[in-house]
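Recall that a protein's primary structure is simply its ordered list of amino acids. Everything else, from secondary elements to tertiary packing, is in principle encoded there. The following example makes that idea concrete.
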Amino acid sequence: MSQREFPEELNATSVAIELAAGTYPSRHEVLEAALLGLEGVLGRFFAGGFASIRGQYEAHSAVMGQALTVGGVASEGVGFDDDGALWVRPPGGGASRCVESEDVWLREPDGA
């Protein structure tokens, strides 16, 4: 199945694999590429823990700088600890706190 058009909200961040690769890869080729990409990251993680991949993880995290609801409280994602715990703060600033285990939800910045 090939998809060349996406919903408007995805247009800025989506591309058809066929267009990016110049061909339509098989599922096996996609899986192989994904696993090869993970191999180096996992090697660094196993050798140096989360701290060794934290920068790369933060760069791709869906919660960094985003409006969140954490444990029912409006928050903003500000970073991760060396052990992978999420750091959040109240919207608009304030003291940060470490979140090791709570429900974390993306929310609209206006609080919706």
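The radius of gyration is 18 Å. The longest strand covers residues 73-80.
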